[in-house]
Protein 1
Amino acid sequence: MKFSKKLFCFIGPGASGKSSICTALSKTDLPITLSISTTTRAPRPYEIEGRDYFFVSKDSFTQEIDKNNFIEYAEFAGNMYGTSISTIKTSFAENKHVILEIEIQGVKKLKESSLLKEMDCELVVIFICPPTKEELVKRFKARGADSPERINERLIIAEQEIAESIAPNFSNYVIVNKDLDSSIDQARAIIIAELSKRSVFDTSVISSFIK
Ligand code: 5GP
């Protein structure tokens, strides 16, 4: 019986709250795995190898590209980020769907990926939008990690990302993240609805009804 898999891509500018939403979703009872990306970025003080990212050198990242081990990869703010094919295949083999938290270039590559079609996998893009510019600035400042100049740069990047994400046919869903708990509920509802679609239904579970 046909069993379609879903790749849930959460996109949104820095400080939109997408990481918190994805982490919360990965701790629920949904049949999903949160993919851990590989990056050349240096770890932040609170980040843990294998939990937040696989941190690698530029040389090892290039080797992974050459071996075709990434289903998508992109450069963002001077660092490389990539999603390994094996993570996705392993999750699908365990009948789990996959959550990715990635930037927009990666989504564009996935939209063109023939591998996803071969794996009978559907891409679902969920855009996490900050409620207002003022709130985004407040969140950047609250992190205390950036200078006023850097905050301005990040705002410009955020505006570009928002414009692309809301362009027709780019995102399937939009969540305006005013309140984290409500946004997690909304994201969970989206995943449950997507996994209730007939196209994902494994008819073998009702084999006793089928002659
Ligand atoms: P950060 O350095 O803040 O952790 O991530 C920077 C950006 O890279 C974020 O938008 C994040 O979602 C994105 N990102 C993280 N992992 C990947 C990945 O595997 N592929 C792509 N294309 N983007 C990623």
Note: The chain has a mean pLDDT of 93.
Protein 2
Amino acid sequence: MVIVMKLSASSEEIAAVNEELKCCGLEGHLIQGVNRFVIGAVGERRDLVAQRLEVLPGVEKVVPIMRPFKLVSREAQEAPTLVRVGDAVIGGRDIVLAAGPCAVESKEQIYEAAVRVKQAGAKILRGGAYKPRTSPYSFQGLEEEGLKALAAAGEATGLATVTEVVDLPSLDVAKAYVDMLQIGARNMQNFRLLQAAGRSGKPILLKRGLSATIEEWLMAAEYIMSEGNNQIVLCERGIRTFETATRNTLDLSAVPVVKEMSHLPLLVDPSHATGVARWVGPMARAGIAAGADGLLIEVHPEPAKALSDGPQSLTPTAFSRLAEEMKKVAESVGRSL
Ligand code: PEP
Ligand code: MN
């Protein structure tokens, strides 16, 4: 349930509500709305205490939330959450481009990618150092050495950085180097990892699982937010269907659906969705037109030589063209880039 406080509620009255919740074995999460505080209360037996809370001073109303996800739901917070990553703000009027290679392969490669995506207008540099590969014989990533190269490229260009973490040890190492942590499709339901991400103090990019429903995806976000971290960006990267022409099927309808159900911002990743560089542009346009807050795009200085995901990676020149096109698409839906 959500406890909506009166405009005039004092900090003592808010504290009293939290105290009452604690007494009843519930946990209160304070959410600052545009002009008032609301308290999200999660735990068992919440219905029993609603009546007691409603009569406390400073409380305007108590609203039950029927959906299984609570803190990430629109009912808990009507205003969109803004996620800050370096200088970038995701979830506002501006469309944010995050771009870079699938994997960090060398200092030179990530630096070159960083310079080129920055020139094209990206705000966030991506690069994997721990790669969750289907085959154990494929390139697994440079690990800490890769993180150092990513951080150096970010610093040199002024770009914020994002990298994927695959388990608790990699999260611990990565959080010292990057501005944002990515939880990939394969780990979307790694609940211990989600909780650790919630305690990491970093913004989290949470990709949709390979076969996850929107509800399961939002429940994964709930794991992060229930640890006190609301800096979560969702990322639609395609789901598994019977179709084999594309690597995955980009579920564009998830964009308006998620926006209705949750206050969290959302990126579209047309690279992993299509798996083919020449289809990235059309789906990027569609993603922004559908209402996404930005794009996650794989860009490699030399896609033909990439150690992972070369076929879906754009050249820096192609990315630059795409970014130009996105300006027009963004404008046509009342956004800017
Ligand atoms: C990636 O971003 O490189 C990646 C592995 O993505 P996903 O988890 O969506 O497959
Ligand atoms: Mn990739």
Note: The first helix runs from residue 11 to 23.
Protein 3
Amino acid sequence: MTVTVRAALANWHISTSAHSEFLIFALLMQSVKKEIVMSGIRPTGFLHLGNYFGALRNFVRMQDEYPCFFMLADLHSLTTHPDTSQLKTNIHRVLAEHLACGLDPDKSALYCQSHVYETSELYLYLSTLSMVGELEKTPTFKDKVRQHPQNVNAGLLTYPVLQAADILLHRAKLVPVGKDQEQHLEMARNIVVRFHHRYSEVFPEPVAFNYGGELIKVPSLDGAGKMSKSENQYATLYLSDPDDLIRKKVMKAKTDTGPTAPNSPKPDYIENLFLLMKLVSAPDTLQKFEEDYNACTIRYGDMKKQLAEDMVRFIAPIREKAEAIQQDTEYLKKVMIQGAEKARSSAQATMKVVREAMGLNYY
Ligand code: TRP
């Protein structure tokens, strides 16, 4: 369906720019009841393997099936990373990584949050529909208070309100996010319900959206939790890591002396190595090590060497592509402007409806 609509648009020659083509595409998709997808990633550091398998890989698929808004959440990052000296580098790098992973600025809206001023307007309106008690109870807020006791700013408290604004600004319903964001989505739904109760029906109720239901968790290399920007740096593989660093990190992963009885259950840190292998190695490679494990003949040194090489083969092309794109600042600028235009058009259309619904129209 999506492909047909795109092809039809190309044939009609009605689009004078990629921008208007996207809008018509979004409208047509809405008219055939295609829901809108919206998600964001905070540019607080470069992207890692968890971002790739948990988000980007799915975004690449979604951009062919839905009208999509993918955003770099730079305003959110100000709540925890007030020092902006690295922000430009991070934005350039993370945007380049999105593009290197296959996101196409002609297909979806790829933009920076701070370029869409309507976000801040909606954020303020929605804050009047958000209850302080509820915000204070949010687990992510409590975590951040623990992590940054000297910077418990109000933006940290209203973080989920800003996120709701990002989503509702495009009247998006489908939000591809991990489990840790469920609470924020629930808050967004509560805000929607209150808005509809107090004013009138404007927004869909946003829900978490993932293919097949099961989220892929990319485990960290130290056997503790999943890969993340803030945890142990040596346990996280970045899409920007050079080959030798990838090898070093994989070889340092925790193992033990091996199973002592056939078909034993795997300890977490060993299971994690198999999970990582499943993501980047060939199926018969994985099978060979599974068999070795079950027969108690596995040599973890060999397994990690294999995993390291397969990881290098997986990450190196993305890294090299992202590096080349990152150098091309003119192209990045073009992509950011194009994305901001698409996002702003959609935001302005929504805000018109929102102001009316709220009674903020005096003439
Ligand atoms: N809070 C999200 C995270 O930390 C990032 C984010 C910001 C987001 N705005 C969003 C995700 C809107 C989905 C939709 O991962």
Note: Residues 241-321 form a domain with the Tyrosyl-Transfer RNA Synthetase fold (CATH 1.10.240.10).
Protein 4
Amino acid sequence: MMNTRTTQDWQAADAAHYLHPFTDFKALANKGSRVITKADNIYLWDSEGHKILDAMSGLWCVNVGYGQQELIDAATKQLKTLPFYNSFFQTATPPAIELAELLAQVTPPQFKHVFFAGSGSEANDTIVRMVRRYWDLQGQPQRSVIVSRINAYHGSTMAGASLGGMSGMHEQGGLPIPGIVHIEQPFWFESDRKLSRDEFGLKAARALEAKILELGADKVAAFIGEPIQGAGGVIVPPATYWPEIQRICDQYGILLIADEVITGFGRTGHWFGCETLGFKPDLMTFAKGVSSGYIPLGGVMVGERVARTLIDKGGEFAHGYTYSGHPVACAVAVANIKLIQRERLVERVREELGPYLAKKFAELGEHPLIGEAQTCGLMGALQIVKNKATLETFDSKLEVGMMCRAHCFGNGLIMRAVGDRMIIAPPLVMTLAQIDEMVALIRKCLDLTTAELKQRGML
Ligand code: PXG
């Protein structure tokens, strides 16, 4: 019945009833959404039958690609055996226990415990309550401030959006909530570029030290950051940045939190981004790639420093979600992690796919429209510029990134535009030939964007 509906029919019902996330409702209702109907491997198909290469892995999440039978079987089997039971009242389910055990194996050695949530936002909400609880139990309740960064993305719930550093989000709903402050981001390209990348990395990290000294170290609970900012534009920080952040957190006794929602589960060529970037967090949030997005799941890895306090002195931690440890989600995640292990996807990204993408992006970086090309593992960014020699950018009002994205859409490629930064995070199951195919599409779309800019007298 459903698949006899036409695109126009879907669009009309969508416009009549469906409020989409991060969307201008009226504008979309007028234009009509693109209806995605099926997927396989790294490709999607829309309701018009167009095939699209999904260079964003859904929304940074389908790490193992679409159509993996093992994940489907794991969900089906669990749905039949026990579709739901909670873990509130001294109960547990086998998939949740098995996943907790497996996560302790694949995460860095300081992590032996996990707290489950349903999404990255819920995981970050958990973080705020957990770090404040930790300091209460340490007899330092005044240590409640969490330092984050401008242009960070940590989700859309009240705490998630407050931790995030997106001004457009803070403007809606009276955010940030109290006790969350933001420092500069390690975005060398956006700086005046007078410092070398490494010098700039140290300077950006030392903004944390300055903020701690301004607030008083005895007031600061934690620092949170994405190892590589994702939604902010795939901003790969200078190599000096994270080691310096680590030094500062250690020196002042502040908890270090890695938001691994995008960078986890092989994306950067290690299981977690903190391993690639060289730091050792006390807490780590995850979601997306844990279940490759087949089913919602998130959580917090709790390092021994915090776990020992919560377990040994904490009593009841008054926090949790109906779906914390959902058995079907956990069963899918177990199958997903086992698949990543068996197919050696993390090693493949580190040794083969990541270096190949880096080489191809360096070539794209020579395109006249591109001022900076960055990759890390299978994340990449291409910064569009007006003048390649001076790195002058276009007026943001011209929305050149959106122009480029429209060419991508029109040519069977999904790539995201963050301002004029074109970004990708494709599935980790890609072949080298598929990277070539993706890069050829990107080049074509950059050429089409250049042609349109010239035709409209903007270049
Ligand atoms: N942390 C990070 C680092 C994220 O990227 C979240 C937390 C929140 O996760 P949930 O599961 O609550 O959405 C995210 C989510 C984009 C985009 O436009 C990125 C995300 C979500 C929606 C859009 O790039 N990341």
Note: The pocket of PXG is lined by residues 59, 119-121, 124, 153-155, 160, 226, 230-231, 259, 261-262, 287, 298, 416 (CB under 6 Å).
